[in-house]
Write a structure and sequence with these properties.
By secondary structure, this protein is an alpha/beta fold. It is built from 15 helices and 10 strands. Bound molecules: S-adenosyl-L-homocysteine, tryptophan (TRP) and iron/sulfur cluster.
């Protein structure tokens, strides 16, 4: 394994916090046409430099980039896997401007799912939607006790999901320090399929302050960035960084995200990558301002320069954009950012009154995943449709 894994945490943290831009001369030196044909393996340049060159080169169309990226990732096995998000509460002590869960938003109706409610939601996803991947979400909390209690609670939910037969659990609960990783980590073994998600949102420190700097635990950029280092130091290996597209300029975010991903991969981590686009939320119009073509270009470039990492795609995006992006992705995650929103045999709830934001596609996860499989794409962690979507011969298979 890579030497870096033996560096003391502080040193790694320092290195990670200096993710910076690329040198213009290095970018100009990239022969984009050659790279496009040979892939990143054929070049000695770092992936973030190649990404930057591809983003800038207007003579290469987005369609061409998408085609090249699809050819790189199509060979991956399994081609796709899935998880469905489960927000276990919408309480939060942070003040992110783009998010309806921010503490000062007194119009949001706060909810907290109990043990029995979480278990019931997991059963609905398992039995009625036929999925074997779940993502557990919460706000981010202030104060040692609340943070440890949240980590402990999400650890319990992770254990419960794994014991129930879920094959992959993502958790997305804000930054994590070593004591919190311990409180959560004691519920699992390091080699279990559990992925820590902490999206940096933006790698531009000024923009970070503008959107996340309004107070509360998420204001600390470096504490957030170091979360994966602590997780890897504790012996875990599944990580999911990301950028919230729409907060800062696309080129800078792309370059720094790719550089972060390649640092993590070099430390031996298995990396999924998220680039969610900003959505409207209660009282917030939140247009991302990034048009489809530019967004797809970013996705294509990440897929092309990081072919071993899986892009995560969600139902924040419409069915039409999903269709265009799906073959660039390695994880497709349908669902709703409302608290405990799933209903047996029905659509999920996504009420403005209680949701983090509003999604573009509220079809049932099983409906979307069945439709995907009907086009010949295999989706791991999806065992098949419940009765109403299944072919007659398959009925009765799902308990
Ligand atoms: N409280 C945790 C979990 C956040 S939910 C945390 O902040 O880390 C996961 C992601 O949803 C966030 O990291 C952010 O990238 C995204 N998000 C927040 N507000 C959004 C919005 N209005 N539209 C789309 N995505 C949003
Ligand atoms: N925000 C989390 C993520 O992007 C949770 C999530 C997964 C999600 N799939 C979703 C939110 C679909 C809304 C819709 O990983
Ligand atoms: Fe809280 Fe996360 Fe929303 Fe920020 S993005 S307000 S930390 S839930």
């Amino acid at each position: 394994m890579n030497q870096e894994i033996n560096l003391p945490p502080a040193q790694i943290g320092t290195r990670y916090s200096t993710i910076e831009g690329v040198d213009d001369d290095d970018v100009r030196a990239i022969e984009t046409r050659v790279v496009l044909e040979q892939g990143v393996e054929g070049s000695s340049a770092p992936p973030e430099v190649i990404a930057c060159a591809l983003m800038r080169d207007g003579s290469i169309s987005t369609a061409e980039l998408m085609q090249a990226a699809k050819e790189r990732v199509v060979i991956r096995e399994p081609r796709l896997h899935t998880f469905v998000p489960l927000y276990t509460t919408n309480h939060c002590d942070s003040e992110c401007k783009m998010c309806a869960m921010r503490k000062s938003n007194d119009k949001l109706k706060r909810k907290f799912a109990t043990k029995l409610e979480i278990e019931e939601q997991l059963r609905i996803l398992y039995e009625s939607e036929g999925v074997r991947g779940v993502g557990l979400l919460t706000g981010e909390y202030e104060g040692t006790f609340s943070r440890l209690a949240n980590a402990f609670r999400v650890g319990w939910a992770t254990r419960t999901a794994l014991d129930m037969g879920f094959e992959r659990v993502y958790f997305n609960i804000g930054s994590m320090q070593p004591d919190e990783i311990q409180a959560l980590g004691e519920w699992i073994e390091p080699d279990e399929p559990v992925t820590m998600c902490v999206f940096q949102e933006t790698y531009d420190r000024q923009k970070y302050v503008r959107f996340m700097g309004g107070g509360g635990p998420k204001t600390d950029y470096d504490q957030r960035l170091r979360s994966f280092d602590h997780w890897i130091d504790a012996g875990f290996r599944y990580v999911n960084p990301g950028v919230l597209v729409g907060l800062s300029d696309e080129e800078t975010e792309l370059v720094r995200l790719v550089s972060h991903v390649s640092h993590l991969a070099r430390r031996g981590a298995i990396v999924d990558v998220s680039l969610p686009r900003l959505r409207p939320a209660q009282g917030l119009r939140n247009a991302s301002g990034v048009p489809d073509d530019k967004y797809l270009r970013m996705l294509a470039i990440v897929a092309f320069v990081c072919p071993d990492q899986r892009l995560v795609f969600t139902t924040r995006e419409s069915a039409e954009v999903q269709e265009r992006a799906i073959d660039l992705c390695g994880v497709f995650s349908p669902g709703s950012p409302d608290v405990a929103p799933y209903r047996r045999g029905g659509r999920a709830q996504n009420d403005e009154e209680t949701s983090q934001f509003l999604v573009a596609d509220l079809r049932r996860p099983s409906e979307i995943l069945s439709a995907l499989e009907a086009t010949g794409r295999e989706v791991a962690h999806f065992v098949g449709a419940p009765e109403e979507w299944a072919a007659p011969a398959e009925r009765g298979e799902v308990a």
